[in-house]
Amino acid sequence: MDRLVDDRTILQVVVGSHAFGLAGPGSDTDRRGVYALPAAAFWGLTKPAKHHEGPQPEQLRWEVERVCVLGLAANPNVLEVLHSPLVEICTPVGDELRALAPAFLSRRVADTYLGYAAAQFAKAERGVARSGTPTWRHVVHLIRLLTAGGHLVRTGELVLDVGADRDRLLAVKAGRLPWTEVAAWRDRLVAELVRDLDASPLPDHPDEARVDQWLISVRRRSVEEMA
């Protein structure tokens, strides 16, 4: 299966700390990608997996239909794959998918980003209540996610690099900021994202028809390759 997914990979990027501008000497390289299986792989009763892990460490790839479904639902992980500037593999079909990235964006990102952050911050707060400290690297990820979500809502542009927030986020990761300050930062980011949603340049809904047409064309071309 590794070989088939490798052969059919249309896009692979680096996400995580390297894409966020938060990497240190010991940081893992998180690779995420998209593969497009031939249409014939779906004709039998046994359907192929929707994602594939490995064989490299921290490597995960999704089948292209799964990417389309998750992207239209404003899944933050998939949106980051489509917008990462650290591209390792990109075929002509991968170029098409990257060009299609704006079609996935909509005001749904407010719900997904806020919902994920709220659930994870609740877990962090339980950690504080139990032991006096959360898992700081997870907290960094959530602050970064809210920052990126707020920028996306305000501008219509998804930017992965944390920019001027880098030093402060690294201080959070090292546990040098008190929890009350981190929680206040979280509250401010949430309030700003909610406030800016009404004036967002993002459409209310993603362009599902455009994404659907593209996916059909990918499947059709794979059939034509068999002829």
TrEMBL record:
Family annotation (InterPro entries): RlaP (IPR018775)
Superkingdom, natural source: Bacteria
PANTHER family, per the entry: NUCLEOTIDYLTRANSFERASE (PTHR34817:SF2)
Name used for this protein in its record: DNA polymerase beta superfamily protein
Organism lineage string: Bacteria, Bacillati, Actinomycetota, Actinomycetes, Micromonosporales
